[in-house]
Design brief:
The chain has 140 residues and is mainly α. 69% of the residues lie in helices and 0% in strands. Helix 1 packs antiparallel against helix 2. The mean pLDDT is 82.
Length: 140
Amino acid sequence: MRYVNAVIAVALLLLAVLKLDDPPGASMFLFGALIAAVSLKHWLSAWSVRVLAFLAAGTLFCYFGQFFYLVPHLQPSWYWEWQGDALEATALLLSGFAMIPVLSEFSCRMKATRECERGRREFEARKPLLAGFKGFEIGR
């Protein structure tokens, strides 16, 4: 999940750079990139995780709200066009869906307990399933 959120942070940052001519739009994408980047931080307090989850949900709804505000102004085949409002609508739609894994990360952290954290560490420490077979190598 960390790699997915890192890719989302970079993609939203690129969208912010591409929208520098529109400061409110660029700041919206930049805010989403910052929230996605903060989700990469391993240790966050319970209070900050709750606030970040609320901000991630608000950002998600903001992206979708801007998309639905733009929909009446689009041509019937807007998804085949790669210019003007169609490009902005695509960026907003994809950004809204991209915020779902970020919100999921914060939601998972809010529900996590010590048992959950210990189980995840034990799962990561397990050997792969086929590691016990002697002489088994992939590509042989």
